[in-house]
Amino acid sequence: MIFLRYAAYRFVTMLLTLCVVSVLVFVIINLPPGDYLSNQIAELRATGQAEGVAKAEFLRHEYALDQPIWRQYLIWVGFAPGPQGFSGLLQGNFGWSFEFDRPVGEIVGDALWLTVLVNLAAVLFVYAVALPLGVLAAARSESWVDYTAGFVGYLGLATPNFLLALILFYYGHKYFDLPIGGLMAPHYEGEPMSWGKVRSILLHLIVPTFVIGTAGSAAMMQRLRANMLDELGKPYVETALAKGMSPARMLTKYPLRMAFNPFVADIGNLLPAMVSGSVLVSVVLGLQTIGPYLLAALKSQDQFLAAFVLMFVALLTLIGTMISDLLLVLLDPRIRYGDRAG
């Protein structure tokens, strides 16, 4: 019952934080002078295209871009009625993309779940690689295992993702016949889900998962190794070994549990870091994620599309943080609900 109350508290806190983030995102998006339509109107007037100017002015009024910024925000979120009534994020209307001349919802529809899929696969890859390598490196400190794991980790941190993507593109296709580009074969795009489409997506996921997850695994492995070494140097470890506990059981029963807390806490930062960090990789690999759309929206000042993508990343951050907080409370008895709530 106490855990459910704490979970409800964290959920309400997440919603309030999301409201604050939405204000910051909208203000930051509007900080640069002008917007997509203002720039277009200036260009059309310079070339004497009166009809185009009239259309752009109509769109400015239709999407309340001629209103004060505070009212634009309220209309965008759905707190206040605009020219189309109450039609904002809360009502499921994500706005209009002037760059692509389509509703934002249509543009990011498939890209959202593909983004989640790619980054979820990368997170699973990070934990599957970092956990065993970090534990082995700490347990076999200053041995060839430790040095090899450290070399692999530093190599992963030092290699740019886009360069690794190009290398894997070439050698993966040459030696393993892995598909090049995208997250599915072109003929499956827009088609309903089928076994063939699932198989195509899984094959296309191999290279992006490895590329996006490499840097995250390297950093997390080094962090876990450092935490494990700190725990292994504490007196309770010597006491447990002196009482006859086997090294393997002692390692998993105490130091690993204590060192696992930062590992779990990283969930909150891992998902958004991968989404934002994979923008360049998505462009290089031609992935149908929200990364290329975010890049295009920021370049052209397409404010509704850019704002929605940034809100999506913020939502991932807050969900990841809430999950990590709940898991920490369940995993570590030293953490009390009152401490986390405070």
What's the short version?
It contains 16 helices and 2 strands. It is mostly helical.
Task: Walk me through what this model shows.
Helices cover 75% and strands 1% of the residues. The chain contains 16 helices and 2 strands. The protein has helices at residues 2-29, 36-47, 50-62, 69-77, 104-139, 144-158, 161-176, 195-232, 235-242, 247-253, 255-265, 267-277, 279-285, 290-300, 303-331, 337-341; strands spanning 96-97, 102-103. A two-stranded antiparallel ribbon has the order 1-2. It is globular. It starts with a helix and ends with a helix. 32% of the residues are buried. The model has no long low-confidence stretch (mean pLDDT 80).
Give me some keywords for this one.
342 residues; mainly alpha; 2 strands; 1% strand
SS-based class:
mainly alpha
Spatial sequence of strands, sheet with the most strands: 1-2
Tally of separate helices: 16
| Alpha-carbon distance between the two ends | 18 Å
**Cα gyration radius (Å):** 25 Å
Order of helices and strands: HHHHEEHHHHHHHHHHHH
Poorly predicted spans: none
The major sheet is characterized as: 2 strands, antiparallel
Shape: globular
The total beta strand count reads 2
Percentage of residues in DSSP E strands: under 5%
Let me know the average pLDDT: 80
Give helix % range.
over 70%
